[in-house]
Design goal:
This protein is an alpha+beta fold and 710 residues long. Helix content is 20%, strand content 33%. The termini are far apart.
């Protein structure tokens, strides 16, 4: 079954490439020269800063111990190999110490059940890189039904969002000579049939949106030049992303075009046999899914239709064909309360499985449609009281089987196989991650802080059982707070070894802007209300102080991407609350963010700084809030040269400005890695170890090595 939900589209959108053209330098910003990503002068600056960081922070015995421990976790053969069913096979992409860039491999379900399955390697990325003199990073495979022998393989140089797509023959283990090939760009290639694909990519001048994503989607026939591909749909320059896809579900074959105007603002069109487009006439803000006979909508705003009003946050369904014919009657499968929101909906062959957050804790139920409507039963799943349970269909076209994953901060991740047609039956345990650290001395709790406007903000806390509440505990507070993405518990061997085993306390703030309470939680911190996310994070910090868990000199904060913007605001607006801050792949210059790489695609979240919106944006632009006369906690900035989503210039410029003002700044930029920061396990271990060691030195007083930036 092809996935044609908005979540899938966003996943593709965020895994796409050609950098947005940069504007000429503006004389009023003396650090704008650092926006030249690959320029000799900026890279000389980067290498000098990296060398200083590695010579100080990276040279300590404590750092080497942390790095080795994290690397061992990342390279471990005992991790759970996540699999995707493709035809009769179960495929997995795997990286370890012997496969730095990874192998794409497959096995059978019978083998997968065994402790040590026999795997068949299909593509060895390390061997491919050696043969081609490249640094490919895996971006995924799309295989053609029903034989699943021809696959479109996406590969990225160095981990950037930009990638190439190449056609591969699984049977012969060879790249198809003169097969489909999409040159390096942000975009994608998707099967229609063996000799036809949809392609949305950089076709030349005018073919990309202002956000740097595809503006045109075409239908391309095998053996013809890409330039001759037939236009299916052309969006506008200020759209965000244009794409198309073919749903190959037997009996429900359909084609769709998506026009994404902004995050959570998109249009969905059904492509007729004559090529005409029929809009699926639902709110742009709704998350849409078309699977088998059903149209599912997760509403982000109240919607009145067919004489009835449906609440924001509800999940409603109806027959797709009937809807396109004019019917407007929906069944409500979920309606939110003050404490609940929809975490996800999964279709199997005969059921809908709902995953619901209740104060950021999961409840799973199986819904079945019959003559009398929908009935619901809870799915029997174990797991910790404070943990995360996720559900996915094994093969929604063929069965009601479910992958069920349970995890928590202290309990290693477990993979189970459940049956939605027998929800009361205990699921079968298939795999369990080993314990990478001793968690017996720790406990997990959930607390609630009160924000400035009186809002109740949850947060998770992992602490030693015998912890003294004298305010001296080194504590790391993590947050994100954007794009309706929830922060939920999960097992991390690296965190356990590098932080918890040393006696550190770990907290995660579920602040507004995220998705912990559905769209209302996200929308509460958009644009002019962005400050509420920062007030929430500060409130959690203050609650930690009130409980005696820690104090400002022992509290550190960490976040990346939008969470990097959060950290920049903690640094500039709440410096008195923190003893150290780690700012990763951040947005910081909010005056120019929309002109850098994919920045224009986030204006629905932050606003447009080229309009009157700047009047509120400037109040959360760390680059402009920095005051050289003020005192700030020590800060570590990390980013990636190859990040073509959030421009490395944000981190470079902020670090340079603070260094010139004599502040305590450490900087490290990975030359590879994309938005994830690292392209292999060695780089990931190095980057993580820098953050943990920096925080531990600053917050515990253990071997403070001093600034690497002064």
């Amino acid at each position: 079954m092809s996935c044609f939900t908005q979540a899938c589209l966003f996943a593709g959108l965020l895994a796409a490439g050609a950098a947005h053209a940069q504007e000429p330098a503006v004389a009023t910003d003396p650090y704008q020269w650092l926006e030249d990503v690959g320029g000799d002068k900026p890279l000389d600056w980067v290498r000098a800063r990296n060398a200083r960081t590695d010579a100080t922070l990276g040279a300590s015995a404590g750092f080497k111990h942390i790095e080795a421990g994290i690397r061992e976790v990342l390279d471990s053969d005992a991790k759970i190999p996540g699999v995707q069913k493709i035809g009769d096979w179960y495929y997995n992409f795997w990286k370890d110490r012997n496969h730095e860039r990874g192998i794409w491999r497959r096995t059978t379900l019978e083998e997968y059940r065994k402790p040590d399955p026999a795997w068949e390697t299909i593509i060895d990325l390390d061997a491919l890189n050696k043969a081609e003199g490249e640094n490919w990073v895996w971006h995924g495979a799309n295989c053609l039904r029903p034989e699943y022998e021809r696959c479109l393989i996406a590969l990225s140089r160095g981990g950037a969002d930009a990638d190439v797509t190449r056609e591969f023959d699984v049977a012969s283990r060879t790249w198809v000579k003169d097969g489909f090939f999409r040159p390096e760009a942000k975009g994608g290639l998707g099967w229609i049939d063996r000799d036809t694909v949809y392609v949305y990519t950089d076709f030349g001048p005018g073919s990309m949106t202002e956000s740097g994503y595809p503006r045109v989607v075409k239908r391309w026939k095998r053996g013809t030049p890409l330039a001759s591909a037939q236009v299916v749909y052309e969006g506008k320059p200020d759209d965000m992303y244009i794409a198309a896809g073919h749903d190959d579900t037997p009996g429900y074959e359909r084609d769709f075009v998506t026009r994404t105007l902004a995050f959570y603002n998109d249009e969905l069109y059904l492509v007729g046999k004559d090529g005409a487009l029929a809009k699926v006439d639902v709110p742009n803000s709704a998350q849409k899914s078309v699977q088998r006979q059903w149209l599912g909508l997760e509403l982000r705003e109240p919607w009145t239709v067919g004489g009835r009003t449906y609440k924001a946050g509800s999940f409603i369904v109806t027959g797709f064909d009937g809807f396109m014919a004019g019917k407007r009657e929906f069944d409500v499968l979920f309606e939110p309360t003050d404490s609940t929101s929809l975490a996800g909906a999964t279709l199997t062959r005969n059921h809908v499985v709902l995953n619901v957050f209740d104060d950021v804790k999961n409840r799973i139920s199986v819904l079945t449609h019959g003559d009398k409507g929908w009935t619901s039963e809870p799915l029997k799943v174990g797991g910790d009281a404070i943990g995360t349970t996720s559900v996915g269909a094994v093969d929604a076209d063929e069965s009601d089987l479910l992958w069920v994953t349970t995890t928590s901060y202290l309990t290693p991740t477990t993979l189970l196989l459940a049956d939605a047609s027998a929800p009361a039956a205990a699921p079968q345990a298939l795999k369990a991650m080993p314990a990478f650290f001793d968690a017996s001395k720790d406990v997990v709790e959930q607390h609630f802080a009160t924000s400035k406007d009186g809002t109740r903000v949850p947060y998770f806390l992992v602490r030693p059982k015998g912890m003294k509440t004298d305010g001296t505990n080194p504590t790391l507070l993590y947050g994100y707070g954007g794009f309706e993405i929830p922060m939920v518990p999960g097992y991390s061997g690296g965190l356990g070894r590098a932080w918890l085993e040393q006696g550190g306390v770990y907290a995660v703030a579920n602040i507004r802007g995220g998705g912990e309470y559905g769209p209302r939680w996200h929308q509460a911190a958009l644009k002019a209300n962005r400050h509420k996310a920062y007030e929430d994070f500060a409130a959690v910090a203050q609650d930690l102080f009130k409980r005696g868990i820690t104090s400002p000199q022992h509290l550190g904060a960490q976040g990346g991407s939008n969470g990097g913007l959060l950290m920049g605001n903690m640094l500039t607006q709440y410096p008195e609350l923190f003893g150290a801050i780690v700012v990763q792949v951040p947005l910081l210059d909010m005056k120019r963010y929309n002109k850098l790489l994919a920045g224009a695609s986030w204006m629905a979240e932050y606003g447009n700084p080229d309009t009157a919106d700047w009047e509120f944006i400037r109040h959360f632009s760390p680059y402009h809030l920095f005051d050289p006369a003020k005192d700030y906690p020590p800060v570590l900035f990390t980013t990636s040269t190859r990040d073509d989503r959030v421009h490395p210039g944000h981190a470079r410029k902020m670090a340079a400005k603070m260094i010139e003002a004599g502040k305590d700044v450490t900087y490290y930029e990975n030359i590879e890695g994309g938005h994830g920061g690292a392209a292999n396990n060695a780089q990931a271990a190095h980057m993580s170890a820098l953050a943990y060691r920096f925080l531990w030195e600053r917050l515990s007083g253990d071997g403070n090595a001093g600034s690497a930036g002064k």
